[in-house]
Amino acid sequence: DQLEELKDILTVDARVENHLVLSATTKDLDLAQTVERFSILPIRSYIFTKLDETEEYASLFNQLLRFKRPLSYLTNGQKVPEDIELATKGKVASLVLNRIPWN
User: Which end of the chain is more exposed for a tag (fewer CB within 10 A), N or C?
Assistant: First the structure.
């Protein structure tokens, strides 16, 4: 019922962009369940927070592949707006690929 009520609020004005804010520290399965629960809402894109609190970014990447929504912003700290950055493919690729041990 609460999600339906929230959906009614979020669809009042089509010009308003809705972003689902997710923590990069959350486990992959938990992120997937969260995204699934909120899938009835008109979510335009994701924002991943707390990049500074983890060294594992595979779950972030998995959500992008799994649910096919864009990623708009990343946050890397608690200073607003200094620690908010526009998400780019290069940034996400760098986060994920830098964790792989290469020869």
Answer: C
Q: Is 102 a residue whose pLDDT tops 80?
A: no
* pLDDT tens track for 30-69: 999 999 999 999 999 999 999 999 999 989 999 999 999 9
In the block, which residue shows the tokens 């994920």? 96
Contacts of 12 (CB under 8 A, 6+ apart): none
Q: Enumerate the H helices of the chain as residue ranges.
A: 2-10, 28-37, 58-67, 89-97
pLDDT at 9: 87
Reduced to 3 states, what is the DSSP secondary structure of residue 22? strand
* Beta-bridge mates of residue 20: 46
